[in-house]
Amino acid sequence: MNKVMLIGRLGKDPETKDVNGNTVTTWSMATTEKWKDKTGTWQNKTEWHNCQAWGATATAVGTWTTKGTQVFVEGKLNTTKWTDKNGVERWTTNIAASNVQFLSDTKKKETETTKPEWQANVENTFPGAQTEFASQDIPF
Q1: Would you call 118 helix, strand, or coil by DSSP?
Q2: What one-character-per-residue DSSP string does 34-64 give?
Q3: CA distance linking residue 26 with residue 57, whole number of Å
């Protein structure tokens, strides 16, 4: 099984573009692990992840997030092999995001009666679909 679930913050504004008629959005996000070492001192380790989404998910991320937005990303690892300009083979691993939930304020403020188009579409397509997380819904 190839499944990834992350909670973190965008490291910069996402970049959206059109590829052969399809919308794709890429972004970097940081996840931070915190623990106490044997001496009781808090330690941090931050990992950076390159993420990519297509279609409606790409549009939503590109429209509603900016640097610093906290998100939950669910997807799979995708590794691509390529050759650099010096002829050296390299590999790039990113997260192919299939589900992105916004956990903090988004770029455009909403009122209680106004929902972003993508959220309304999800609710219309899948009645009863959960489109937002409450902190108690996150299992860690």
Answers
A1: helix
A2: EEE-TTS-EEEEEEEEEEEEEHHHHHHHHHH
A3: 11
Contacts of 40 (CB under 8 A, 6+ apart): none
Examine the pLDDT at 41 and tell me if it is beyond 50. Answer: yes
β 42-54/89-102 pair status = parallel
- Contact residues for 137 (Cβ-Cβ < 8 A; gap 6+): 130
Count of residues in the chain: 140
d(CA 76, CA 71): 16
Instruction: Give bridge partners of residue 33 from the DSSP assignment.
Output: 45
Pairing of strands 22-36, 42-54: antiparallel
CA gap 1, 30 in Å, rounded: 23
The DSSP code for 11 is: S
For residue 38, count CB atoms less than 10 angstroms from its CB and return exposed for 0-12, middle for 13-18, buried for 19 or more. exposed
Of 112 and 86, which is predicted with more confidence? 86
| Structure token pair of residue 15 | 């970049």
Structure confidence at residue 35 as a pLDDT band (50, 70, 90): very high
